[in-house]
Write a structure and sequence with these properties.
Layout lengths: L2 H17 L21 E7 L9 E6 L6 E7 L23 E5 L11 H15 L1 H4 L1 E11 L1 H11 L20 E5 L5 H10 L8 H6 L7 H6 L13 E6 L7 H13 L4 E6 L12 H15 L1
Parallel strand pairs: 3-4, 3-5, 5-6, 6-7, 7-8
Antiparallel strand pairs: 1-2, 2-4
């Protein structure tokens, strides 16, 4: 690693440790979020579906200087039932020459799967279609998400060549992405629903069941349709998967299944098991984890 890259990584990590107090989503704010670097541009509430709802909007953050920036798209978690684009992590990427987008998508109480994936793909197509006017490099778009957002970014990574999920506007523009960072996202909803049942949660009311519109055990085909593993091909983009070894919500096995399937298809993948990591939290803000995150996006998007 060059001295310049090492210095940039140290600066990124130190700033990130100060700025990222939580990976939970805060309440919406009409103004630029805390931690926005000086001079950076904040373009809120952009409709990526014409006439769509507020759940079909994104916020765009652009660096203070330069142009033709690689783009990282943040997709929030919340069990597919809650969460928001406001106050995303990763704003410190702006000072290192990345643009950042953060998007809302329809929640499962309003529309069942694949609505969430269709929205994410619509957002990627909009960002690529409008890349030139926003100074974004359309050939270097990466995605990063946590929990339910991790599930959706994994699907974005493996369905780039699945036309049935590209619907609506800008369908002539690709929704493929060039890098995927999945933080503790679900993969196999059938297995996940069983773990919720083990924890005494009613199966029909579990997040996986609500996502597909009925009890998973009675809708296996619908649940399998939401599994990113089923769409893996050898030309999928590189993956960085990070999952805590003490996650009480999404079992580590979910990420292990995805990593094994990607590896079998010869897709570049790194599975980082975060020591002491729960479902997010402080363990993901340790220096070693932030180094890995920063280096991954530099390697595949810069």
């Amino acid at each position: 690693m060059s001295v310049t890259m090492k210095s940039s990584r140290i600066a990124f990590c130190l700033a990130a440790l100060l700025a990222w107090s939580s990976f939970a989503v805060d309440s919406p704010s009409p103004t630029a979020p805390p931690g926005l670097p000086a001079g950076a541009k904040f373009l809120p509430n952009i409709k990526y579906v014409a006439g769509g709802s507020e759940r079909q909007e994104l916020d765009l953050y652009l660096p203070a200087t330069g142009t033709n920036w690689p783009l990282i798209v943040w997709i929030h978690g919340g069990g597919w039932t809650e969460g928001s684009k406001e106050n995303p992590p990763g704003l410190r990427f702006l000072i290192h020459g990345f643009a950042l987008a953060s998007l809302n998508y329809r929640l499962s109480q309003d529309a069942i799967f694949p609505a969430q994936l269709l929205d994410c793909k619509s957002a990627i197509r909009w960002l690529r279609a409008h890349a030139a006017e926003n100074g974004i490099d359309p050939n270097h778009i990466g995605v990063w998400g946590a929990s339910a957002g991790g599930h959706l970014v994994a699907l974005l990574g493996t369905t780039g060549d699945v036309k049935e999920f590209d619907q609506g506007e800008n369908v002539g523009v690709s929704s493929r992405v060039e890098a995927v960072c999945d933080w503790f996202g679900p993969t196999d909803l059938v297995q996940l629903a069983k773990s919720f049942a083990t924890n005494k949660q009613d199966e029909a009311d579990s997040p996986p069941s609500r996502l597909i519109g009925g009890a998973v055990s009675q809708n296996i085909e619908k649940a399998e349709r939401a599994n990113p593993i089923h769409y893996i091909t050898k030309d999928d983009p590189p993956f960085l998967i990070m999952h805590g070894d003490k996650d009480p919500v999404v079992p580590l096995e979910q990420s292990q299944l995805l990593a094994a399937a990607l590896q079998k298809a010869s897709v570049p993948v790194t599975l980082r098991v975060v020591p002491g990591g729960e479902h997010g939290g402080a363990a993901f803000r340790e220096r070693e984890e932030l180094d890995l995150l920063y280096d991954f996006f530099v390697k595949y998007l810069k």
